[in-house]
């Protein structure tokens, strides 16, 4: 399945880089998204990337977060972190991802998540 890594504690204004890898299938064949769920809130999409490297970002992370990928890993570079970015971050297959757009649903594979905490 999918496995996230790279979470942890960061100070406001700091950076973290998350990684998403796959076992049992070739990650590069799939559109992959990053999602997050904060305490008491619903899980939400952050960004996604296609095999052609087309990308979508939700407005509140534009200019701060960057998604990228190589053949085996999808990365989420998070800069200028804010306390409200505190959440469990998940990667998942994202068939609804396209250039500048994301349509929810059909997320067949999910990781277990990695905790990101932004606090001074």
- Please state how the strands of the largest beta sheet are arranged side by side: 2-12-9-4-5-6
Q: Mean pLDDT score, rounded?
A: 95
Major beta sheet summary:
6 strands, mixed
Please give the alpha-carbon distance between the first and last residues: 34 Å
Number of helices: 0
Class from secondary-structure proportions: mainly beta
In what range is the share of β-strand residues?
Answer: over 45%
Helix/strand order: EEEEEEEEEEEE
What is the topology?
Layout: E1 2-5, E2 8-10, E3 16-22, E4 32-37, E5 44-49, E6 55-57, E7 65-69, E8 73-78, E9 87-93, E10 97-98, E11 101-102, E12 114-118
Characterise the protein shown here.
The termini are far apart. This protein has no helices and twelve strands. The chain is 0% helix and 47% strand. Strand 10 and strand 11 (101-102) form a beta hairpin. It has strands spanning 2-5, 8-10, 16-22, 32-37, 44-49, 55-57, 65-69, 73-78, 87-93, 97-98, 101-102, 114-118.
């Amino acid at each position: 399945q999918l496995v996230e890594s790279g979470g942890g504690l960061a100070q406001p204004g700091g950076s973290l880089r998350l990684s998403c890898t796959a076992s049992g299938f070739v990650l590069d064949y799939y559109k992959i998204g990053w999602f997050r769920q904060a305490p008491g809130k619903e899980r939400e999409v952050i960004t996604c990337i296609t095999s052609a490297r087309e990308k979508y970002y939700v407005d509140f992370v534009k200019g701060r977060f960057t998604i990228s990928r190589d053949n085996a890993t999808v990365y989420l570079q998070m800069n200028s972190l804010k306390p409200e970015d505190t959440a469990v971050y998940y990667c998942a297959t994202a068939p609804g991802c396209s250039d500048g757009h994301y349509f929810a649903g059909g997320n067949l594979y999910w990781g277990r998540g990695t905790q990101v905490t932004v606090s001074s």
